Structure formats: structure tokens, C-alpha cells
Amino acid sequence: MTTPSAGFATHLAQAHAAVPDALPGAAFCALADNLLALLFPERAERPLTSADAVAAELHRFRAELGALLAAVPGLPAPAATLAAEFTVQLPLLREALLRDAAAILASDPAAQDRAEVISTYPGFYATAIHRLAHALHQRGVPRLPRLLAEHAHQRTGVDIHPGARIGPAFCIDHGTGIVIGETAVIGANVQIYQGVTLGALSVTKGLQGHKRHPTIEDQVVIYAGATILGGSTVVGTRSIIGGNVWLTESVPSHSRVYHRAQIHISRTEDPANELMFSI
User: Fold this and answer.
1) Residue 198's beta-bridge partner residues?
2) In degrees, to the nearest 5, what angle opens at C-alpha 119 toward C-alphas 117 and 120?
3) How far apart are the C-alpha atoms of 5 and 257, rounded to whole Å?
């Protein structure tokens, strides 16, 4: 077996030399996980027991974030400034995530307490990472928000673009297979089950910068497997979207949208025979 030609190696060397410096992706994702452990002692291996210890960790976080941001080309502001602005926002981020945890606890009969939600629920983790990524995305930080989003995607199966705008008290139940696009807008107290897609009707590059994903207003429940598409599609307040619905047009408030499947079950007369089902 022959090896690739010297010309191919030269071509690859030129490609390697042309790309921007590698981002500290792994370190940045680890820092995000450490931040969640700092904000929520339920996720910490060793909870901190004094205000001085917490203050020291916050100072360390700000310094590490600034150092990592300094390695990112094309920042909209100095790395130290962005790190300081992000750190100042942490109380509001924690408050928002506590509301998310409370919403999950209130809606899921299987949830025992808030600590269980915060420490084990993939929906809470995906939402937490999204809120961190979205805060950086709003400040124009390139690439790192997408790295965070993909980190959560790999761990939970929930794929949320950091540009998506998600309101308070957001509840993801189970979560696997959820996709939420860049320009989606989600209101307050919205509940989404596994396999839901909030996507675009068209994915042509010419639509970049346009609203391509739906708007979900307050108090909406979207059940498993539903697909809602289009930038002009609005699901009105307090609507319920049933499982496996395919929706490409707006529905008014208090709507009930269901997919009606025809399922027929038959059984032989003799119970001793094998059960026969036709679906």
C-alpha cells in the first residue's frame, strides 16, 4: 500500500497553517461545568461553606474566563471587559436557572425535589448551558457559544442554538432529540418534551440573518415528536401541541392541535392462540 503523495502532504500543511489558532474548547467547557457547580452546590463535589471561599472562586472564575477569552480572535471587546461583564451577570443567571428548576419540579411527578432536578436532570443541564452560551452570544463572542451548545448537545441530546431566545421558567421534560433553532423565540412557562423540533421551513444560505424559526408564546406545552417550522409561525399563548404534530402555520391562543392516527387492533377468537396486532 502506497502512502499519499508529497503534494498532498504539502496541501494539508498549507491548510493547517491557514486556519485560526485552535480555541480552548475543552478548557472552556470544563470552566462552564465548574461554574454550574459554583452556582449550584447540588452539583458540587465539595460545597463551599464561607462567603470568603465563594468570593475567591468567583474571582478565580473571572480570571480564568478572561484568560480563555484572550485566546479567541475577533472579540468585540477586550477579554477582561467581557469576563467582568459576564461575571456581574451571574446573579441574574442563577435566578433564571432556579426558576427553570422550579418549573421542572412543578411539572414532573417523578421529580422528588429541586436538588434532584439541578443535579441530575438533563433538561436542566441543557437549559443552564444554553443560558450561559446565550449570554456570551449576545455580547458577540465568536465560536465559543457554539462550542458550549455542542458540549450540552453531546451530553444530553438537546441541541439548542445559542442565539435562541428562551423566556423564564423553561421546562424540558426528558429532552433527548430536542432541536431549537437560532432565531426561535420561546416565552415564559413553556414546557417541551423529547423529540420536539423548532426549525426552519427552508435552510438556504440566503436566509442567514432572517427569522427562520417559530415563536412560542407563554404557557405553551409541546408534546413528544412535534415539529414546528417557519419564522412566521406563532403558537399562541396557552396552546397545547400534541405528539407528532407537523405544524407550519400559526395557531391562536388556547389552541389544541393534535395528530390523529388510525390504529386498529384485532384479536383471534381463541385466547390460547398468539395475539395478533395490526398497526
Assistant:
1) 180, 228
2) 70
3) 60
